[in-house]
Design a protein that fits this description.
The complex is a heterodimer. Chain A contains 11 helices and 14 strands. By secondary structure, chain A is an alpha+beta fold. Chain A has 3 domains: 7-53, Uridine Diphospho-n-acetylenolpyruvylglucosamine Reductase, domain 2; 58-181, Uridine Diphospho-n-acetylenolpyruvylglucosamine Reductase, domain 3, CATH 3.30.465.10; 187-300, CO dehydrogenase flavoprotein, C-terminal domain (Enolase-like, domain 1). In chain A, the strands form 4 sheets. Chain A has a 5-stranded antiparallel β-sheet with strand order 4-5-10-6-7. In chain A, strands 11-12-13-14 form a 4-stranded antiparallel β-sheet, sandwiched between helices. In chain A, α9 (237-243) runs antiparallel to α10 and α10 crosses α11. Among the domains of chain B are: 3-78, Beta-grasp domain (Ubiquitin-like (UB roll), Roll), CATH 3.10.20; 211-311 and 368-460, Aldehyde oxidase/xanthine dehydrogenase, a/b hammerhead (Aldehyde Oxidoreductase, domain 3), CATH 3.90.1170; 562-576 and 587-624 and 812-975, Aldehyde Oxidoreductase, domain 4 (2-Layer Sandwich), CATH 3.30.365.10; 655-794, Aldehyde Oxidoreductase, domain 4 (2-Layer Sandwich). Chain B is globular, with a radius of gyration of 28 Å. The chains are: A alpha+beta, B alpha+beta. Chains A and B meet through α2, α6 and α11 of A and β4, α4, α9 and α25 of B.
């Protein structure tokens, strides 16, 4: 139960980090908060001989408000540096003002001790299916900012995870930030998770809902995202197509829950059977969607 | 590549060589000797390694030391202002000391650091804020109640270390009933909620546990466990391991004694290392000693073992089927122990009953999970004495077993028990660590330390047996019990361990709570290819008690009798010989029922709560020490001669104490081998010692950790220490007072028989104004006679238990009784249970230390409520544990813990010291049934297999929807 005898490389810039990662290829891993990585190394789930520490790459930290220019962020958006810790995210005034639904997730994640170490980038790039931030970030319409020597590319976050512990990052690429559209009138989001213990428990199933309503109360966009019940966080596109233009009433909520349930492809494990997880997806979808609708109303007033 | 880095720890700069892969925890502990932060899980699940970096709490096991270079790090050792070379306690630390926030102390440093960080950013946190901040710190002892109180009330300790405020509405410390009624205020130390005598050491990180101790020249051992559940070893190749730099010894089954060991003399079925056969995943196969633990771990991985795999049996039904593979050749049908007891005539009685109900219940596989992993250090002294430091709750049995395995006299084995971070039965037996460390030390000539990782603890096992129970209960029309029969299959795992006793306990304790005129029990302990089960808190009884309480509640519903009332009608009475010959003296069970009914508001809640909310009752009790011990004193003088014949009665007393007074008369050293494992025995025994001597408890020091110093006490199991150790100590102290009397009488000018001792004085009975200093009398004695030493011992009285086979198990000088009411809310859409509240009344006799008693109750409630709804060791089809860690195996966090009201009823046990009896194990027993009943009451469905998970509840609710239109059973509030 020791970290194996790896070589640790320190660097001061993204460029250096990327160069080291390229030099060592598959033999190297990035070290951010370390709360997953060190456990994986100690338990030999993961073997690697080089770690590239990002701690001195200050540019990767912090939360800023930026003006948008892309199609999915025409308005302002909050840029969250990949090295921002969960507790820094939770405490950031910009987050509280512009993307408060993230707090649904940050407050339930792991423990205070882990939240002081674990980073936003790590929670995304580890690509663990039960991670808490991806569903709510995807529901909020977040994008991933990916750096390479050739420049930055920005992709929808729902395309970032491609499999369990696998991401869309290519050789030489680093996740440097996520961008979350700032709160806007007519939009609300919420995250509901289920775990077997009140404190420090991994999600058995989770559902995030992002909801945009037109002035007449009709759904203009519905982003239901499932966590822990599929190989990757799963945006349920069908819920959007099925419910667009409808009011958020009991029938719509039932429909969304039923679609989400069918979209889930859970496994059975020590935390619950696949069938139970489907049941949870149903319940959590209803709860997340109702909470999101409530927030739309609150955002109006 | 070793790096030189500067760490800023507790305000001091340390420039030192670190490896890039060293965690901060390892550097703090191994290089800076700051052992307050504990390695209890090593993967961020438990919080025991919490330190502050930049003022923020982090798991130091999840941080590489080089990553925090130059940043301020604060450990528990850095708390408090330095004043004249001593660090003063912070108010928070004082609050932990006085509010019952500490028991075993292993979680304490991490807990205090997390709370320190909270208070620095939020000086007046709400209860929810406290729970959120501490949700990453697991505690197995306190039930978190004392911890929450400590953080809430730490402001009260800002100016001085005043004692705890009286608990709101709870039992007032110092209330001594009957015996003292004639003389109020008779006692000074006994009956007081004094802080633990080891609390300051534990709250400052100063307390040393086995893994904190480093002996000169010490090396590190590690065990290789089997990777398969059942098979024979074809070949072991240790050459690669032995060739690794830093490896000093490698041993296999060929290098260890042929002698088998275990717990019950008739069932010694374990080898130090597998000789040929492996019987469960993790079964010890080989061991290594190396210059450090990392090297030992690497070496173990280099040992090549080839197995011939055999089919494994993983549950009791598979194992007892015709033609099933045998785990041990000697146990036919894999049944290691079979019990058949029949008192009265159950068949005839069932025929007369107005109502009979039979149900099948299933328990779960629970693990004790003490926060401190097992650890040992072995050393052979030059005179051939084996010295073992070990984290154990039964030092004497370890001593006995080492003597047995190594063929040396018990007197040549010295066992030292450093601070122990919880046991709950998981540290009651001699471990492979104890034995392998001894073998490796003999081989290398160096002290060898060995520690289990959290995962290895699960593989070692010794947790609660999973029991499969078919229970049949018959009553008359008023609900009075006429007959009860039970058949239990206990899933024992691969070795007997404590299992013989477990199988008997599962039956023997049922008739102690209610009058059962006709009683039958058939028990089978079955060997399976899983880690051995052992004695866990409540030993064998919690699951049968759960099943019985559920069945009684079902019958109450069937007959429309209130569940509290049906218990009153059947409740045990004092001075009763039970149907199975258990000799009950004091019994205030009815009083606990009345009190819990009233305090919980039972009548206004039961049957009146909305769906999703429920209330339930459960009861239970336990022995105050086993009336007969595991071996009865037959000493094995030489291996050739063999042990003396087994006999029913103990040759030696079960508890023995020496009280030695310093030559200036100012201090008493109380020596007794009773194991302080966090339950507070040192404190309770010091109180008894002080009371019996007539001096303040501050003048008593306990020496209980070293078998060379302290006479034999059988250890901390069967809830025995307060009663048995208490008697031994009070008798030793009384002997001292007896020796002092003539000297005091001479000084006082009175008769010896008139001399009394209290408050550090010796005075004439009836005239306290005629007094001399206690110390002066003691000095007089010393000057004339030399050392003032008294000794005392305790043997259980003769005549406990009957003459039938197994009659000794369950016998005790005294029995505890308790009733608990549980309130839950259940999310009917997900099945999730929130245990909201517990109201608990116990008859533990007259408490020696009420706060310690409540601490046991609070801890037992949270541990056992978690056991009821979430704890379960799970196995795959190959016998591998799926959740050998504290994120897969769930114990309640501080956010899961219910609100608890604990109180005691007036009681006096004539066979207990100062009227006391047990609390530690008995407090677990009402809990499972109460939680299960409350869930049934909230949902209308009974879940009869543990743990009662959300998934099972939801499935039962769905099943009921499918099969019936009736929305709820009679038990549900809305029905």
């Amino acid at each position: 139960m020791y970290v194996p005898e790896i070589e640790l490389h320190e660097c001061d810039s993204i460029e250096q980090a990327a160069a080291l990662m390229t030099r060592y290829g598959g033999e190297a891993r990035l070290l951010a908060g370390g709360t997953d990585l060190l456990v994986d190394l100690k338990t030999q789930r993961l073997r690697t001989s080089h770690l590239v520490s990002l701690r001195r790459v200050a540019v990767l930290r912090g939360v800023t408000l930026e003006e948008g220019n892309g199609p999915r962020s025409a308005g302002a958006f909050v840029r969250i540096g990949a090295l921002t810790t969960i507790n820094e995210l939770d405490a950031a005034p910009l987050v509280r003002r512009h993307c408060a639904p993230l707090l649904d997730a940050t407050r339930e994640m792991a423990t205070d001790q882990v939240r002081n170490l674990a980073t936003v980038g790590g929670n995304l790039a580890s690509a663990v299916p039960c991670a808490d931030l991806p569903p709510i970030l995807i529901a909020l319409g977040a994008t991933a900012v990916i750096w390479s020597r050739a420049g930055e590319r920005v992709i929808p976050l729902e395309t970032f995870c491609v499999g369990p512990r696998q991401t869309a990052l290519q050789q030489g690429e680093l996740l440097v930030a996520v961008r979350v559209p700032a709160a806007r009138a007519g939009f609300g989001a919420a995250y509901a998770r289920f775990a077997l213990r009140e404190g420090n428990a991994i999600a058995v199933a989770s559902v995030a809902a992002g909801l945009a309503l037109a002035d007449d109360g009709a759904i203009s966009e519905l982003r239901i995202v499932l966590g822990a019940v599929a190989p990757t966080p799963a945006l349920v596109a069908k819920a959007n197509t099925a419910l667009i233009g409808r009011p958020v009433d009991d029938e719509a909520i039932e429909r969304a829950a039923s679609i989400a349930r069918q979209a889930a492809s859970p496994i059975s494990d020590i935390r619950g059977s696949a069938e139970y997880r489907r049941e949870l997806v149903d319940v959590l979808t209803r709860r997340a969607l109702a909470a999101a609708a409530q927030r739309v109303r609150e955002n109006r007033t | 590549m070793t790096l030189v880095r500067t760490l800023l720890v507790n305000g001091q700069r340390h420039t030192l060589a670190v490896e890039p892969f060293d965690t901060l925890l390892d550097v703090l502990r191994d290089k800076l000797n700051l052992t307050g932060a504990k390695k209890a899980c090593n993967v961020g699940d438990c919080g025991a390694c919490t330190v502050l970096v930049d003022g923020r709490p982090v798991n130091s096991c999840l941080v590489l030391a080089v990553e925090v270079e130059g940043r301020p790090i604060t450990t528990i050792e850095g708390l408090g202002e330095m004043r004249e070379g001593v660090r003063e306690l912070e108010p928070l630390q004082k609050a932990f000391v006085h509010e019952g926030g500490i028991q075993c102390g292993y979680c304490t440093p991490g807990m205090v650091m997390a709370a320190t960080a909270l208070l620095s950013r939020n000086p007046k946190p709400t209860t929810d804020e406290i729970k959120n901040a501490l949700a990453g710190n697991l505690c197995r002892c306190t039930g978190y109640a004392g911890i929450v109180r400590a953080v809430q009330r730490c402001e009260n300790y800002r100016d001085d270390g005043t004692c705890a405020a009286k608990r709101d509405g709870a039992h007032v410390p110092g209330r001594i009933s009957r015996e003292s009624a004639a003389e109020p205020g008779r006692y000074r130390s006994v009956g007081e909620s004094l802080p633990r005598i080891d609390a300051v050491d534990k709250v400052t990180g100063r307390a040393l546990y086995t893994a904190d101790i480093r002996l000169p020249g010490m090396i590190y051992g590690k065990i290789l466990g089997s990777t398969i559940a059942h098979g024979t070893i074809r070949r072991i190749d240790v050459s690669r391991a032995a060739a690794l730099d830093g490896v000093l010894a490698v041993i296999t089954g060929a290098d260890v004694p042929d002698t088998t060991y275990g717990v019950s003399p008739a069932r010694y079925d374990e080898h130090v290392l597998a000789k040929q056969k492996v019987r469960h995943v993790g079964d010890p196969v080989a061991a290594v000693a190396a210059i450090d633990e990392r090297t030992a771990e690497r070496a173990v991985a280099l040992i090549d073992v080839e197995y011939d795999e055999l089919p494994a049996v993983l549950d009791v039904f598979e194992a007892t089927a015709d033609g099933a593979p045998l785990v041990h050749e000697r146990y036919a049908r894999n049944i290691g122990t079979e019990v058949h007891q029949h008192f009265g005539d159950v068949d005839a009685a069932f025929a007369r009953c107005d109502h009979v109900r039979e149900e099948v219940f299933t328990g779960n596989h629970i693990y004790q999970c003490p926060l401190e992993p097992h650890a040992a250090i072995a050393r052979w002294d030059s005179d051939g004495t084996l010295v073992l430091y070990t984290s154990t709750q039964a030092p004497h049995y370890v001593q006995y077993m080492l003597a047995h395995v190594f063929h040396i006299p018990v007197g040549r084995v010295r066992v030292i028990r450093p601070a122990v971070g919880g046991g709950f039965g998981g540290k009651a037996a001699t471990t492979p660590l104890d034995l392998c460390a001894a073998v490796l030390s003999r081989k290398t000539g160096r002290p060898v330390t060995m520690r289990y990782s959290r995962e290895e603890m699960f593989h070692y096992g010794r947790g609660r047996h999973k029991q499969h129970m078919t229970f049949k209960l018959g009553v008359d029309r008023d609900g009075r019990i006429q007959a009860f029969s039970s058949e239990i299959y206990l899933d024992g795992g691969a070795y007997s361990s404590f299992g013989v006793a477990t199988a008997y306990y599962a039956g023997s304790m049922i008739p102690t709570l209610y009058h059962i005129p006709n009683y039958k029990y058939d028990g089978y302990r079955v060997m399976t290819n899983k880690p051995a089960c052992g004695a866990m808190r409540g030993h064998g009884v919690p699951q049968p008690r759960f099943a019985f309480e559920c069945l009684l509640n079902m019958i109450a519903d069937d007959l429309s009798i209130d569940p509290v009332e049906i218990r009153r009608r059947n409740a045990m009475d004092p001075n009763t010989r039970t149907v199975n010959d258990m000799d009950i003296q004091s019994c205030e069970f009815r009083a606990t029922l009345d009190a819990v009914e009233k305090k919980s508001g039972w009548r206004s809640k039961y049957g009146r709560l909305p769906p999703g909310r429920g209330i339930g009752i459960g009861c239970g009790g336990f022995v105050s020490g086993a009336g007969y011990c595991i071996y009865r004193g037959q000493v094995q003088l030489s291996h050739e001669k063999g042990p003396e014949p087994f006999q029913k009665h103990s040759i030696f007393p079960h508890a023995n104490a020496i009280v030695k007074i310093s030559e200036d008369g100012m201090a008493a050293v109380c020596m007794i081998g009773a194991a302080e494992i966090g339950q507070g025995s040192d404190t309770v025994l010091a109180q008894i010692c002080a009371e019996s001597l007539g001096i303040p408890v501050s003048r008593v020091r306990m020496r209980s950790e070293d078998s060379d110093i302290s006479p034999i006490d059988l250890g901390a199991y069967s809830s025995r220490v307060t009663l048995m150790g208490g008697h031994a100590v009070s008798r030793a102290a009384a002997a001292v007072v007896e020796m002092l009397r003539p000297y005091a009488a001479k000084l006082l000018g009175c008769e010896s028989s008139e001399v009394r001792a209290r408050d550090g004085k010796m005075f004439v009975e009836g005239d306290a104004s005629r007094s001399v200093d206690w110390a002066e009398a003691a000095r007089k004695y010393f000057n004339e006679n030399g050392p003032l030493v008294g000794s005392g011992c305790y043997k259980p009285p003769d005549g406990l238990g009957g003459d039938y086979k197994g009659a000794t198990v369950g016998t005790s000088p005294a029995y505890s009784f308790g009733s608990a009411v549980c309130e839950v809310s259940v999310d009917l859409e997900t099945g999730k249970v929130r245990v909201e509240r517990f109201t608990d009344y116990h008859d533990c006799g007259t408490p020696i230390n009420p706060q310690a008693v409540h601490g046991q109750v609070e801890g037992a409630i949270v541990m056992t409520a978690g056991e009821t709804i979430m704890e379960d060791v799970q196995f795959d089809a190959k016998g591998r544990i799926l959740n050998p860690n504290l994120h897969g195996y769930l114990m309640m966090s501080i956010k899961d813990a219910p609100e608890i009201f604990s109180d005691l009823v007036d009681s006096y046990e004539p066979r207990g010291p100062f009227g006391a009896k047990e609390i530690g194990e008995g407090a677990t027993l009402p809990v499972l049934g109460a939680v299960a009943h409350a869930i049934a009451n909230a949902t209308g469905v009974w879940i009869k297999d543990l743990p009662i998970t959300p998934e099972k509840i939801l499935a039962a609710l769905r099943e009921r929807q499918r099969t019936t239109d009736v929305p709820a059973a009679a038990a549900v509030g809305t029905a």
